[in-house]
Amino acid sequence: MLTPENVVYTARATARGGRAGHVRTEDGIIDVDLAAPPETGGPGGAANPELLFAAGYAACYQNAFERVAKKEGVDASESRVSAEVGFGRDTERGFAISVVLRAGVPGVPVEEVRRLMAAAHEVCPYSKATRGNIPVELVPEAA
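Given the sequence above, the corresponding structure tokens read:
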């Protein structure tokens, strides 16, 4: 188990009503209604846990990607990372998620992006948290 030696920040959020409820962070920066997407039988039109996870993972991984690239002497300041979080039935336990991370850097060959993505995947806290728990696919793209 990976545990921070010194916690310097703690995010706090409270949800009520589950997927058809509301979630708010302690500081009020996130304060959103939740609704299941139409693909799962919900009404849509609001955030859902997968959207929030995708946004958080994309931002965290983007930061790790830029840091790794900088260390390798690659300018990734114009890079982009997207996270796709899939949700569906898991035959063993009910439901599960999967992730596809896509990244591209203008002017950087796809094979170099692939190498940087693999390195970022080793240091990103979200990647560490999900490793061995859910499938995460890394997809380098031309930008």
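DSSP finds three helices and six strands in the chain. Try to locate this feature in the token string yourself.
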